[in-house]
Amino acid sequence: MINVTQTFLPPQEEYNKIVKRAWDKIWLTNRGELTLELESKLKKYLNTNSIIITNNGTIPLQIALKLLGKNGEIITTPFSYVATSAAIVWENCTPVFVDIHSEYLTIDETKIEAAITLKTTAILATHVFGNPCNIEAIENIAKKHNLKVIYDAAHSFGVNYNEKSLFNFGDVSTCSFHATKLFHTGEGGAMFCNDEELNEKLFYSHNFGHNGPLDFHGLGINAKISELQAAMGLTVFPHINHIITERKTVVDYYNANLSFKNFNGLKIRANTTWNYSYFPVVFESEQVLLKIQKALNEKKIFPRRYFYPSLNTINYINGEKMSISESIASRILCLPLYVGLTTSELEQIVSIINNNI
Ligand SMILES: *Cc1c(COP(=O)(O)O)cnc(C)c1O
């Protein structure tokens, strides 16, 4: 069976060796030495101004929205994983959708200003598949209207834009270290912030608000990662360049061999060093997509409809119509992409698609 992705698992002995340190110390959580070491290694590797590792990639969105959203209207993209919208609703803010670019698949910055009202407090945009949003334009709009910018950068591990980590943009950027993501800790995530004062708030918010054992800065929640998850991260980390290189090989294969006659791939924004995190293809119609999906499924190949449905259509949201996002969502399929996909498997996937298009 070939799925859209397969979790990268390092040799188990390597995990055992690292996790033994938690056993030896009898210390499983509360920012132990493994968590601190992972934070320091990732900060250096990614070259970010800060990092706070969390227990998943959704809670940093919630914390950022709690601190910056202030129960207002949040301008957001309908084309993302459901966590982006769900976090907004969960934090008692109101999602206001703005349609996307048909090629970049990120929020269409030219339509943002029309959606701003007196209740707007922030923009929450996703760097979809690791493809950066129009950061400069969004920053200008935010400045002009005094709005905060939060980036759901769940897919952006290792992506650089203008030679800087994509995590260094926006008031807060978040990442997911879920097992299906490029770098993972099983479950996990992180938040990044360039403002020292805000970063301090994010930090205490992720640990019950603690200011030492007996005092509190303010309200907080538990978003701490465990040492067992940090051990997984430290085990995966030395393989990260290998992971990215292997994924690039798969992406290069698809680009060289898919016919691209009646469908498109993802257009990556200029000045981006991408991470090869996903391989989406957008077909002519949903019928073609379903035909190809069926042909692949018959050979036990399971691509995923990332992202479907368009988030504005979800029952508890019921947003305005978003023509481009809804159209793309109905026609997009992410092809299998992971370390260990063999050439013969790739040949099979490509020939099924090319023969059915
Ligand atoms: C995976 C993902 C998340 C959520 O991350 P978790 O670690 O699963 O909580 C949020 N946004 C996007 C775009 C994602 O793909």
Would you write up a description of this structure?
α9 crosses α11. The chain has helices at 12-25, 33-46, 59-68, 82-90, 135-145, 196-205, 227-236, 240-257, 286-298, 323-331, 343-356, and strands at 2-3, 52-54, 73-76, 94-97, 120-126, 148-152, 160-161, 164-165, 172-176, 189-193, 210-211, 215-216, 272-273, 280-282, 301-302, 332-334. The chain has two domains: 8-238, 3-Layer(aba) Sandwich (Aspartate Aminotransferase, domain 2); 240-355, Aspartate Aminotransferase, domain 1 (Alpha-Beta Complex), CATH 3.90.1150.10. β11 (210-211) and β12 (215-216) form a beta hairpin. The strands form five sheets. Strands 2-10-9-6-5-3-4 form a seven-stranded mixed β-sheet, sandwiched between helices. By secondary structure, the protein is of the alpha/beta class. The chain is globular. The longest helix has 18 residues, at 240-257. 37% of the residues lie in helices and 15% in strands. The mean pLDDT is 97.
Task: Annotate the secondary structure layout.
Blueprint (H helix, E strand, L loop, with lengths): L1 E2 L8 H14 L7 H14 L5 E3 L4 H10 L4 E4 L5 H9 L3 E4 L22 E7 L8 H11 L2 E5 L7 E2 L2 E2 L6 E5 L12 E5 L2 H10 L4 E2 L3 E2 L10 H10 L3 H18 L14 E2 L6 E3 L3 H13 L2 E2 L20 H9 E3 L8 H14 L1
Parallel strand pairs: 1-15, 3-4, 3-5, 5-6, 6-9
Antiparallel strand pairs: 2-10, 7-8, 7-13, 9-10, 11-12, 14-16
Helix pairs in contact: 1-7, 2-7, 3-4, 9-11
The structure holds pyridoxal-5'-phosphate.
